[in-house]
From TrEMBL:
It comes from the Eukaryota. Belongs to the peptidase S10 family. InterPro entries: AB_hydrolase_fold, Peptidase_S10. It comes from Xenotaenia resolanae. The lineage of its organism: Eukaryota, Metazoa, Chordata, Craniata, Vertebrata. This is Retinoid-inducible serine carboxypeptidase.
Length: 240
């Protein structure tokens, strides 16, 4: 529901586009409220098509980049699951990442069977989870927090697929007894390790819950802002 407002405030939608995207998103919301989760996933796919059409192909993983034209429309006979897989799995399988995971990381782990390659199972998993994408799981986060498990949410400023506005809305739905104290805190800026004196992120923590706002990064924070991602990871694991 925040996609339209987010894209509108970043100059990627006009008034017509905002109305189109918001209307499409409303249909997804209605399907979720009716617990028609597979239908909601299909309507999510349609909403993404509406976004692409109105933004001239914004990249869901970083709004400052653009999708290639061959990814903007479904192929003849392609169902919505295949289209979503093409949108959301293929971008993850960059050549350099595949080489890293199937090369040095595979060797380091020393347990991967020869007939298994990194990423080879992704589309099957994606297809089999089609009815799960739109299921709310805020209650599970509540269970983790109440059990004392450390939970960290982090978000890239330029991410659309999981935009920060949407993240903050579901966090406000938590029933965790520490939520009020968390929201009352002011955030703390963090210097970008790669550019001292320049703000690279903000963060806020209370007890076993933390939230990091990572600047100048999309969905793939480690590849967009590697040093900042490493700094965050060290803080989460209390190494720094």
């Amino acid at each position: 529901m925040t996609w339209g407002p987010y894209l509108y405030t970043t100059s990627l939608l006009d008034d017509y586009g905002l109305a189109d995207v918001s209307n499409a998103a409303e249909k997804v919301k209605q399907a979720v409220e009716q617990q028609q989760f597979l239908k909601a996933t299909e309507l999510w796919s349609i909403t993404e098509t509406v976004v692409e059409q109105n933004t001239n192909g914004v990249n869901f993983y970083n709004i400052l980049t653009q999708e290639p034209d061959d990814k903007l429309a479904s192929s003849a006979g392609e169902n919505f699951i295949s289209l979503q897989a093409r949108r959301h799995i293929h971008p993850l399988h960059k050549q350099s990442l595949s080489e890293l995971m199937n090369g040095p990381i595979r060797k380091k782990l020393a347990i991967i069977p020869q007939n298994v390659t990194w990423g080879g199972q992704a589309e099957k998993v994606f297809s089999n989870m089609a009815g799960d994408f739109m299921r709310p799981v805020v209650d599970i986060v509540d269970q983790l927090l109440m059990a004392g498990v450390n939970v960290t949410v982090y978000n890239g400023q330029l991410d659309l697929i999981v935009d920060t506005m949407g993240q903050e809305l579901w966090v406000k739905q938590l029933k965790w007894d520490g939520l009020h104290s968390f929201t009352q805190q002011r955030w703390t800026p963090l210097d970008d390790p790669a550019a001292p004196g320049v703000t690279g992120a903000f963060y806020k923590t209370y007890k076993n819950f933390g939230f990091y706002w990572i600047l100048k990064a999309g969905h793939m924070i480690p590849s967009d802002q590697g040093p900042m991602a490493l700094q965050m990871l060290k803080m989460i694991t209390q190494q720094d």
